[in-house]
Design goal:
The chain is α+β, with helices and mostly antiparallel strands and 623 residues long. A six-stranded mixed β-sheet has the order 3-2-4-23-7-26. Helix 1 packs antiparallel against helix 17, helix 4 packs antiparallel against helix 5 and helix 14 packs antiparallel against helix 16 (576-585). The protein is globular and about 80 Å long. The two termini are 16 Å apart.
């Protein structure tokens, strides 16, 4: 009896010891701050987690003797700070939107409208090149042809490495992921490919809870506003026009490019592209029923590019078009001039990405009398244009069936679509592998208008929709991942956030252009920027703020751009020793700092004591 009391007492003591130690020790190891050498100003906008990022920056920089004053501004004030006043050393901002070409002119070049870093060609001037090396890299990248050549890919890899190692205008942080849930009885859907490219592979195996029809896919979206791609500025409108219309070329999820409406596209030389239209492709009937049995041809290509270059919201993006020529019914030539300021035609590699635009029906939007006084430019106020803005049509897989304002848009499979027509030659498309065989029995895509994401999620869980975004609902997402009724997919977004460094000499520390005391091959400012990049613990920020779900990125372009991202780029992973080394190069000797034990050491000690106590009991019992 007495022995049992002793055993009980010891066991209670062990349990209490573990509990007490755990309560004090469940926290990461901490590196003590030191007296600062100087103070930097860091700014961002309020709302969301950006102020939290700057608070982590402040903590991490304190470990290497840098004090950071964090200033959080409202969005209009912060934007003014970035583009006009620039009274900061570090900012946190993000780029989004994406694209298929790695040309980031406008962001990292000297006169770029988004050059918030203050890069100037004086920073890396090369007398042989007559400009800064970074500027040369960016300019040269647009001249290398063909646009998707191995030479051009390797050129951009070299540029990324140079920019991040020798200039370091920013420290990339995260590329967020987007998450989508679907009912598990839906087979063949790929978030990477999207609904349109997945359609021919999809089918339902039975029905899920709440499902009424296994021949339709039901999703949700906000209300669309303008279905003419020339004037669209919202994704809801783009979803409809993309579903109904086709492009000359098609980019798969990995950014590999394939001919689409164009049977072929050939660079005759560096400034001339010949496009041969795929034959036998028919247009959907127009909403007025005026035109039937219209075939896609070179007139549609010419008209579409002319409209983009002259009447769209993006006219400035098409100033590289020098001339266009219709050779015959199915052949079209496009003449390129990447620099209109020079007498000769110059290459412009990103031109290929503009062949990925949706092709417009020339026969409907360019009817006789629907032009301006010059007899060429289309009159966008004509009745056909107004109709097209609310009832677009094309050569695509879907055509608009019914639309109920505020309720839903119903898209029906276009039965005469060339995608489904075996008579249309698709031998150079690897079509079945990429798009499927369309034997799944689906014929309708119903898009319910539910702008509120919480309501949309509830409708999905009730089985009234089949696919739904769950990025904003991590708890719901985790529950669905282990629920056999659902499948959750994710993909990296065309988005990356970064700490931007103000390299202008007026920022006398982080932009200091003088040779570093410890290494004259780099500036003092570059050494300090490297020290900051190495002291940042992006893993910790990701774990604490994003539950470890974001992808850490090291590239100055979108991580989503795949092949264009240098696989061997310099990576500023958290390394306090390297951070101190670069501070020393900049002239600041950072002393070694103590590390406060974290959870691991204390729990290990408590565990040893627990095992020792238990062993004592066992020995006593055996005796």
């Amino acid at each position: 009896m007495k022995l049992n009391k002793v055993k009980t007492t010891i066991l209670v003591g062990v349990i209490l010891s573990l509990f007490v130690v755990s309560s004090f020790a469940v926290q990461p190891a901490k590196t003590d701050a030191i007296d600062p050498f100087f103070t930097l100003v860091a700014k961002t906008n309020g709302g969301g987690v950006r102020p939290d990022y700057l608070n982590f920056l402040k903590q991490h920089c304190a470990r290497i003797g840098i004090n950071v004053d964090v200033i959080v501004q409202d969005w209009p004030t912060f934007v003014g700070e970035l583009i006009a006043y620039r009274d900061f050393d570090i900012c946190y901002v993000a780029l989004s939107g994406g694209g298929a070409d790695p040309d980031f002119t406008g962001v990292y070049n000297e006169n770029g409208s988004l050059n918030l870093f203050g890069y100037h060609t004086d920073m890396d001037y090369n007398a042989t090149l007559g400009t800064g090396l970074n500027e040369w890299y960016m300019r040269e990248g647009n001249l290398i042809m063909p646009p998707d050549s191995t030479e051009r890919v390797q050129h951009y890899w070299a540029w990324e490495q140079y920019l991040m190692d020798e200039i370091l205008p920013c420290q990339p942080v995260f590329a967020p992921k987007v998450y989508t849930a679907l009912w598990s009885n839906l087979e063949g859907y790929s978030l990477l490919d999207g609904i349109k490219q997945s359609w021919g592979k999809m089918s339902f195996t039975g029905t899920h809870d709440g499902q009424l029809d296994a021949t339709e896919i039901v999703t949700t979206d906000a209300a669309w506003s303008d279905l003419n791609p020339l004037f669209q500025d919202d994704t809801s409108s783009s979803t409809i026009s993309t579903a109904t219309m086709d492009t000359l070329i098609f980019y798969d999820a990995d950014l590999s490019v394939h001919p689409h409406l164009a049977e072929s596209y050939t660079f005759v030389n560096d400034t001339t592209v010949e496009i041969v239209c795929r034959e036998g492709i028919m247009w959907q009937d127009d909403p007025d029923g005026t035109f039937t049995d219209e075939e896609f041809d070179a007139d549609d290509v010419y008209f579409t590019l002319y409209a983009w270059a002259n009447v769209s919201n993006d006219v400035a993006n098409y100033d590289w078009i020098k001339k266009m020529e219709i050779v015959d019914k199915y052949t079209f030539k496009l003449y390129i001039d990447g620099d209109p300021s020079t007498p000769e035609n110059d290459p412009f590699a990103p031109a290929i990405t503009y062949l990925n635009t949706r092709i417009l029906p020339e026969h409907y939007l360019n009817q006789t009398g629907d032009q301006l006084a010059d007899g060429v430019t289309p009159d966008i106020t004509a009745a056909s244009w107004n109709t097209f803005a609310t009832s677009c049509f094309g050569t695509g897989l879907f055509e608009i069936g019914t639309f109920t304002e505020g309720v839903e848009t119903e898209l029906n499979v276009f039965d005469d679509c060339w995608w489904l027509d075996a008579a249309v030659d698709k031998t150079n498309m690897d079509f079945v592998t990429r798009f499927g065989d369309f034997t799944g029995g689906l014929d309708t895509w119903r898009i319910r208008i539910i702008p509120d994401t919480q309501t949309a999620l509830l409708e999905f869980k009730a089985g009234k929709t089949d696919i739904e975004g769950v990025t904003q609902f991590p708890e719901e997402r985790e529950a669905m991942i282990i629920d056999p009724d659902f499948d959750v997919q994710n993909d990296t977004q065309f988005y990356f956030g970064f700490f931007g460094y103000n390299m202008r000499p007026v920022r006398t520390v982080i932009g200091n252009p003088d040779p570093a005391p410890g290494d004259a091959s780099m500036t003092t400012g570059l050494a300090i920027r490297k020290a900051i990049s190495y002291c940042l613990d992006r893993v910790e920020i990701n774990e604490v703020i994003h539950r470890g779900e974001y992808t850490i990125t090291d590239h100055p372009i979108y991580l989503k751009m795949g092949i264009w991202c240098n696989p061997n780029i310099i990576r500023y992973n958290h390394d306090l020793d390297l951070a101190r080394e670069y501070m020393a190069i900049a002239g600041y000797e950072v002393p070694e700092t103590s590390v406060t034990p974290g959870f691991g050491l204390l729990i290990a000690f408590a565990s040893i004591m627990a095992v020792a106590s238990a062993s004592f009991l066992i020995v006593k019992k055996r005796k």
